[in-house]
UniProtKB/TrEMBL annotation:
Signal peptide: none annotated. The keyword Nucleotide-binding applies. The keyword Disulfide bond does not apply. It comes from Oxalobacter aliiformigenes. This is 5-formyltetrahydrofolate cyclo-ligase. It is an enzyme of class 6 (ligase). Its EC number is 6.3.3.2. It catalyses: (6S)-5-formyl-5,6,7,8-tetrahydrofolate + ATP = (6R)-5,10-methenyltetrahydrofolate + ADP + phosphate. Its cofactor is Mg(2+). The lineage of its organism: Bacteria, Pseudomonadati, Pseudomonadota, Betaproteobacteria, Burkholderiales.
Length: 164
């Protein structure tokens, strides 16, 4: 992807997420800050922070589920585990009602590939009612074998639309 395509696709993914959330009454949302080439939705987070409480995931231990801490755009960040940016002030919050989860790849059945740490799988196993939204570029649609502990996401949103 070119830099211009990244910007255009990120904007369109943000627009699709905003449309999806508009008809739902969530008050809390767990978001992510992009690493590597994940979609950058900071523009969307600015919009959402006026309507919802945002939080970011932090790792506690390599075999533990994620913890979520309060965050809003502009809050100071530091580098956490795995070189991921996290809020400098780590104020824990309850599990968000909805999560935006970046996908390295995804299937037509809404299973996702991540970076292999299992953090989201462990988190969702403990919180199965969480509304999960996978975030990906449409070119990352693939096929891969799933395992017993894999949990499909509620939907996947790409620059081309929403896969329910």
């Amino acid at each position: 992807m070119t830099a211009d395509e990244h910007v255009r696709f990120d904007h369109e993914i943000g627009r699709q997420v905003s449309l999806y959330l508009r008809s739902r009454m969530f008050k809390t949302i767990g978001v992510y800050l992009p690493i590597r080439n994940e979609p950058d939705l900071l523009e969307l987070y600015e919009e959402l922070s006026a309507k919802m409480h945002l939080s970011l995931p932090v790792t506690i231990d390599k075999d533990q589920p994620l913890q979520f801490v309060r965050w809003k755009p502009g809050d100071p960040l530091v580098k956490g585990d795995y070189n991921v940016s996290i809020p400098a002030m780590r104020e824990p919050v309850d599990m968000p009602e909805v999560l935006l989860i970046p996908c390295v790849g995804y299937t037509v059945n809404r299973f996702r590939l991540g970076y292999g740490g299992g953090f989201f799988d462990r988190t969702l196993a403990e919180h199965p009612d969480t509304h999960t939204i996978g975030i990906a570029y449409s070119c990352l649609l693939t096929d891969f074998p799933t395992e017993e502990n894999d949990i499909p996401l509620r939907c996947i949103i790409t620059e081309t639309g929403i896969m329910l």
